[in-house]
Specification:
Elements lengths: L19 H15 L3 E3 H8 L3 H14 L2 E4 L2 E4 L4 H11 L1 H16 L2 E8 L2 E8 L14 E3 L4 H6 L5 H13 L23 H15 L2 E4 L6 E9 L5 E10 L8 H21 L21 H12 L5 H10 L8 E3 H8 L3 H13 L3 E3 L3 E4 L8 H4 L4 H16 L2 E8 L2 E8 L14 E3 L4 H8 L3 H10 L13 H14 L2 E4 L6 E9 L5 E10 L5 H26 L9
Antiparallel strand pairs: 1-3, 2-3, 4-5, 4-9, 5-6, 7-8, 8-9, 10-12, 11-12, 13-14, 13-18, 14-15, 16-17, 17-18
């Protein structure tokens, strides 16, 4: 049975200094995120209660920031929105400092391991090290769980005061099936639950966890899923997160799991607490991706250019508010107003109003002097976008490229000695290239294959070509290994490869590499055209700028999306 999400409790009145357009912008982002990352604009108007003209201006501004795309009648979350969640994760330091230790524990135990933090009366994931199995953990970074449904929640609830428990009881009463938590299966109807008070049950688990020093989840989330969690404390003794080992009853029962994992888990928690006690990293420069990579000093000029280009469809106060979030990051977990204004290039009064608004909405907390991001920032599309694949990131950019050059565009990855097509946008022509996803060709004979080979260490290229059957697969390609090595070296030097009527008569293609945030070549994109239209040199001159710009745009999205999430090829 499907249960509608409960109505949100009334929010406190916004302070007089709050920025109205920023509040409306975040309302739209929350609705888009709750809707799975894509919604019709008309549905957004109905669900937010905002005027159509207001929603249009919000979406236009978000599109300019790179956080949203408008595709026909739909608004779609874009990968660059992840920079907001990245700012929180970097500021917390948890994935950077504790993530490698969680990954190592997952490898040692061959079980999934999670890092989670408290978020109100919920638990939000900030790192996942999952095992690939038929039945494996499906939670994503940014997913929110009810505190009572999982192992970490009992650890965090031990610090709750009377107001926290009352808020939890009100939420339970308003949402008895957890319909407001899409990451978990619905709770059984209240009539099917135990006659014991839910509060008494949860408080008993909290007391048990406090005495034991660890918490057990015996299929609280769904049947078959079991977990053990331990708290990780900072040097002051405060619990900053919980690390969980998650398994399935087909491997270990709830009774068996603690004995199997607690010794290694305790060692890992000790190592994590030592990592938290180590000196903090030097502050890094703010990631100003919202303004297309602009530094703080050039935010103002970017704002002016955006306003000049879009006119009333660009709402500066909205953009300034979102850019404020990116002032935080590694080594910048807590910032005073002055530092936020300096990092973003905003006037002090403008930054102050944005911070007050974000604090009112729960995305920031303040002790009166210093501001900190809260895990709630991750509700802004992070869970949905963290599930993107490389082809999904590339697809809209390939579509824009095809519209620009009027020829088919594709993306491929290296698979052994072959390339495999993972994304493709065909063009509408009487004569066009017909290749389906999953198609494989020998890497040495294709433009994408050659730039992919060029991204490998020279010794590995030689090894691959020496194992390749160099039969004349193509019409007039060279089949001598040394000549092919020379072609690959040239592709590396040029930054592109052009193949002219080698794969098929009349087919010409130009390809460039796509690199991840570390600089490693992970894919290639190409444009395929008919060789009879012009010369190879003219094809290169006409297509290379657009192709390189497309690859750069994909790389920019990949750099943001891949900071804390592994981006799968498929």
């Amino acid at each position: 049975m499907t249960h509608p999400a409960p109505a949100a409790p009334p929010s406190p009145a916004a302070p007089p200094e709050a920025v109205g357009p920023l509040i409306r912008c975040l309302t739209v982002l929350r609705e888009l995120s709750a809707g799975g990352g894509r919604q019709a604009v008309g549905d957004l108007v109905r669900s937010t209660g905002l005027a159509r003209s207001t929603v249009d201006r919000v979406l236009s501004t978000l599109a300019r920031l790179g956080h949203v795309r408008v595709e026909g009648r739909d608004a779609v979350l874009a990968p660059r929105l992840l920079e907001l969640g990245n700012a929180y994760l970097a500021a917390s330091g948890l994935p950077d400092r504790l993530g490698p230790l969680a990954d190592r524990l997952a490898d040692e135990l061959d079980e999934s391991v999670s890092l989670a933090v408290p978020d109100g009366d919920g638990v939000r994931f900030v790192h996942q090290a999952t095992r690939r199995r038929a039945m494996s953990l499906a939670f994503r970074i940014g997913d929110l769980l009810p505190a009572e449904r999982g192992a970490p929640g009992a650890l965090f609830a031990d610090a709750w005061d009377a107001a926290d428990w009352e808020r939890w009881r009100r939420r339970r009463a308003a949402d008895p099936t957890d319909a407001g938590f899409p990451a978990v299966p619905p709770r059984p109807d209240a009539e099917a639950e135990s006659a014991t008070s839910p509060t008494a049950v949860f408080k008993s688990r909290v007391d048990t966890a406090r005495r034991a020093g660890w918490s057990l989840d015996d299929q609280l989330i769904e049947p078959g899923l079991v977990a053990v969690a331990m708290p990780v404390r900072d040097p002051a003794g405060r619990i900053v997160c919980a690390v969980s080992v998650v398994s399935h009853t087909s491997r270990l029962s709830a009774a068996e799991l603690p004995g199997a994992v607690l010794p290694r888990l305790r060692d890992t928690v000790t190592a994590m607490e030592l990592a938290l006690a180590a000196p903090q990293p030097a502050p890094s420069a703010p990631e100003s991706g919202a303004a297309e990579g602009a530094s703080a000093s050039s935010h103002a000029s970017w704002m002016r250019a955006s306003k000049q280009e879009l006119g009333p469809e660009f709402v500066e106060s909205m953009a300034r508010g979102l850019i404020t979030l990116t002032a935080f990051g590694a080594g910048r977990a807590a910032l005073p107003l002055t530092a936020v204004a300096e990092a973003t290039g905003l006037a002090r009064a403008t930054a102050r109003r944005a911070l007050i608004t974000l604090e009112h909405l729960g995305y920031l907390t303040s002790d009166g002097k210093l501001f900190r991001l809260t895990p709630k920032v991750l509700e802004l599309g992070f869970a949905h976008l963290s599930g993107l694949t490389l082809p999904a990131i590339a697809q809209p950019h390939l579509a824009a490229l095809v519209e620009r050059v009027q020829d088919s565009a594709s993306m491929a990855v290296l698979s052994g000695d072959d390339i495999q097509y993972v994304a493709r946008v065909p063009t509408v022509r009487i004569m066009s290239v017909n290749i389906t996803l999953g198609t494989r060709f020998p890497a040495y004979a294709t433009s994408m294959g050659r730039v992919l080979l060029a991204g490998l260490p020279p010794a590995e290229v030689s090894a691959r070509l020496s194992l390749t059957d160099l039969r004349p697969f193509t019409r007039h390609t060279v089949t001598d290994e040394e000549a092919l090595l020379g072609i690959v070296r040239q592709a590396r030097a040029d930054g592109y490869a052009l193949v002219d009527e080698e794969l098929e008569e009349g087919l010409r293609s130009l390809a460039v590499p796509v690199r991840d945030r570390t600089g490693e070549v992970v894919a290639a994109v190409n444009v395929s055209t008919h060789a009879g239209r012009t010369t190879p040199a003219a094809t290169r001159d006409a297509l290379f700028p657009a192709l390189r710009e497309t690859a750069t745009a994909i790389e920019a999205d990949l750099a943001v999306a891949g900071r804390y999430v592994r981006i799968p090829v498929l």
